[in-house]
Amino acid sequence: MDGTTFIEKKGVSVTNFPRIRMKLQYTLFFSVKPNAPTTPEVVEIGRDSITLQWSHSNPRLVWSYLVEFRLASEQTFTRLTKIPQPSRPMLSIDGLLSPGTEYGFRVLARNSQGISEPSEEIVVRTLGILTAVSYL
Predict the structure, then answer these.
(1) Is the Cα dihedral 82, 83, 86, 92 positive or negative?
(2) DSSP state for residue 61 in the 8-state scheme
(3) Kind and range of the H or E element at 78?
């Protein structure tokens, strides 16, 4: 089918009249990869945690979201996780971040046709002071 991935569901029952039962068969097609999600927004931030949320202009085209992050001082993003529930575009990260450190976050949308361009990056600093330990 020219590289188009599809899902087929069969046997959906619809009853419009008391003695008539109809079976419907339908196929859903995703023929384009999704566009980029909106820039993530900070919902809550702590010393070693952050909660982000975002949205998408057409969430029905999205199967999952991919969240990437980086230290603000670095260039390379690391894939943090996949969010399998596109109806709830939110992520809480707890205990992974360092206090008083700047991080960049971005989100990508995914479906059967590929991965979107990344959202605009948001750069945030966790609460607290980054402390260094020195040994004399």
Answers:
(1) negative
(2) G
(3) strand 78-83
Longest dimension (CA), the chain: 87
Mean per-residue pLDDT, 53-62: 90
- For the chain, domains (ranges, CATH) are 33-125 (2.60.40.10)
Q: Mean pLDDT throughout 59-83?
A: 92
* 20-29 and 6-17 strand pairing: antiparallel
Model confidence at 28, pLDDT cuts 50, 70, 90, reads low
Residue 16, CB half-sphere, CA atoms under 13 Å: how many?
Answer: 3
Q: Which of 26-35, 84-93, 106-115 has the highest mean pLDDT?
A: 106-115
The number of beta carbons lying within 10 Å of the beta carbon of residue 73 is 9
- Tokens 């949205």: give the residue: 55
Query: For residues 130 and 114, what is the distance between their CA atoms, to the nearest angstrom?
Result: 39
Asked if 126 and 98 count as a contact pair (C-beta separation under 8 A), the reply is yes
Which residue has 């982000």 as its token pair? 52
pLDDT at 71 over 50: yes
Q: Where are the alpha helices (DSSP H) in 57-122?
A: none
Cβ neighbours of residue 84 closer than 8 Å, sequence gap 6 or more: 64
